[in-house]
Structure formats: structure tokens, C-alpha cells
Amino acid sequence: MCISFQHQKMMGDSQNDLCDPRSYFCTHPKAMIYVSLLIFLAAFSIWVYKAMIDIRPKVNRPTLNTDARQAINDLKGRLKVHVAVLADEIGPRDVFVPDKLNAAAAYIRGFWEKAGDT
Fold it and tell me: Most C-beta atoms within 10 A of its C-beta, which of 4, 50, 53, 87?
């Protein structure tokens, strides 16, 4: 039961069924349950989120030697060349510009043919 202490104090009555008629939760007891459940779920969600952030995988990352770093930098340079050709020289391509699609396909096909994969 909902008891308004102000109302009880003013009326001098201590019955359990007294309630401030202006209180929404007194007139709608299910609303109090729903709000309490919502607050609990929000607090639980924040706790789970923080717990998930604190969990970090224990992975030993390999250290790269100079040869591996050089191979990665070479690969990065070759990739930049391909992106520059496809983006700058050939340009935007879509189904409404079939010539550029064909040019991009020819460039990729030519690269794989030079690499020995026909």
C-alpha cells in the first residue's frame, strides 16, 4: 500500500490505505513496478558494460623484425599505387559508367596476368 506521510501527518490518521491522490504511483501501482524494473535494468546494463570493458584478451603480440617491417612497408607502397590508379586515374565507377568498370576490370586482370595468375 502507498502511504503519503504528509497526508498522514495532516490528517492524523495512520491507516495503511491512505495515499496522496496526486501521486501517480499510488493510483497506478504497476507503474511503480515498471519504473523500478527499468531503473534496475539500466543499472545492470551499466554494470555489465563496465565489466565487459575491463575484460581484455591476454594475447602476446609478436614483435616484428626489420625484414618483416620492410615487407609490410613494401606492401603498403604497392597498395597505394593500386589505389591511386583505381581512384585517381580510372575514377568513380558504377553501373551507369560501364567504360570505367571495364577499365578497372582490365587493370585488375592485367595485374594478375603479370603476377602469373591467369
Answer: 4
